[in-house]
């Protein structure tokens, strides 16, 4: 009986660890400077590895300060058939991307350029809170 209990606990731990590593999918766009003022930090400069969160992840402002690892997974249009650079970027949410936002996450131009060709404008992504 004790063996089964240990095995079940171990399985539960492994499953919960695996689910926290799984990425969510969405789309990313980018915005250009100036990056201040922002909804989270006002006129405070938070650097350039930043993002604005859409309603999908905004969580009534609770997203402020959250960090996400973002990876390009492919194009959303015919314009740039292979926009991805094969890298990931970690960004901090500093702003809100209001209704009508074209992506799940709106990256700074600098962050977008690390993972994809800016000419694509909008890309498919996987993202994970870190």
Structure overview:
The chain is an alpha/beta fold and 130 residues long. The protein has a single domain (23-129), classed as Beta Barrel (Barwin-like endoglucanases). 24% of the residues lie in helices and 32% in strands. It contains 3 helices and 6 strands. The chain has helices spanning 2-21, 55-58, 109-115, and strands spanning 24-31, 50-53, 67-75, 88-96, 105-108, 123-129. It has a 6-stranded mixed barrel. The radius of gyration is 17 Å and the shape is globular. Residues 3-20 have low confidence and may be disordered.
CATH superfamily membership: RlpA-like domain
Mean pLDDT: 87
CATH domain fold name: Barwin-like endoglucanases
Strand proportion: 25-35%
InterPro entries: EGC1/2, Expansin/allergen_DPBB_dom, RlpA-like_DPBB, RlpA-like_sf
Subcellular location: Secreted
Keywords: Secreted, Signal
Organism: Dioscorea cayennensis subsp. rotundata (White Guinea yam)
Features:
130 residues, alpha/beta, Barwin-like endoglucanases, 6-stranded mixed barrel, 3 helices, 6 strands, signal, Expansin/allergen_DPBB_dom
């Amino acid at each position: 009986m004790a063996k089964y209990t240990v095995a079940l606990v171990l399985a539960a731990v492994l499953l919960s660890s695996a689910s926290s590593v799984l990425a969510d999918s969405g789309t990313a766009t980018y915005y250009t400077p100036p990056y201040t003022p922002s909804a989270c930090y006002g006129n405070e400069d938070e650097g350039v590895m930043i993002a604005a969160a859409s309603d999908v992840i905004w969580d009534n402002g609770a997203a402020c300060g959250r960090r996400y690892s973002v990876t390009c997974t492919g194009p959303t249009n015919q314009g740039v058939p292979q926009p991805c650079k094969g890298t990931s970027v970690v960004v901090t949410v500093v702003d809100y991307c209001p209704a009508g936002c074209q992506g799940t996450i709106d990256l700074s131009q600098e962050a977008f350029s690390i993972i994809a060709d800016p000419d694509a404008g909008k890309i498919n992504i996987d993202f994970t809170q870190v």
